[in-house]
Specification:
There is one protein chain. This protein is an alpha/beta fold. The chain is 37% helix and 18% strand. Strands 1-3-2-4-5 form a five-stranded mixed beta sheet, sandwiched between helices. Helix 3 crosses helix 5.
């Protein structure tokens, strides 16, 4: 845990951060309406970030659609490669499967519950049950085969 904090402190010290002076907004014009979008590269709502345990229960375990769960970490290099690749392949399925992203540093309890010992770990869940799993990086063809097996196509 201490090593993770040190790595995080080092990363934060290297990241340029500029904030507007206190009392000023970062943009001009009317305030944008708040929406629950999580900055995915797919742009189609099939990918979401898990917010907490109850969110995971509602949006993953209780979901009637198959869900791919990507356990990742900000400091994980392979995760940064796999994440966008997996999002792209999920988007191609046009809503037949969803993708939940779980940051293991923010949701350690979920990582422990689902026995995640390394990242990236990807679970395939159907009707609340884990039906398949892999650890590490896969190419797009392997990911498509993984999803087709989950969907039953």
């Amino acid at each position: 845990m201490m090593a993770q904090r040190l790595v995080l402190q080092r990363l934060l010290s290297l990241t340029p951060r500029t904030l507007p002076p206190q009392g000023q907004r970062m943009f001009r014009g009317p305030l944008a309406p708040h929406r629950r979008a999580f900055g995915t590269s797919t742009g189609c709502g099939s990918t979401f970030n898990v917010q907490d345990g109850s969110d995971f229960q509602d949006r993953v375990v209780n979901n009637p659609k198959p869900v791919v769960v990507d356990f990742h970490a900000q400091w994980c290099g392979p995760c940064k490669i796999l994440g966008p690749r997996l999002e792209k392949v999920v988007a191609k399925q046009e809503g037949k499967v969803l993708m939940a992203k779980v940051d293991i540093d923010d949701h350690t309890d979920l990582a422990i519950e689902y026995e995640v010992s390394a990242v990236p770990t990807v679970l395939a869940m159907k009707n609340g049950d884990v039906v398949d799993k892999f650890v590490g990086i896969k190419d797009e063809d392997q990911l498509e085969a993984f999803l087709k097996k989950l969907i039953g196509a």
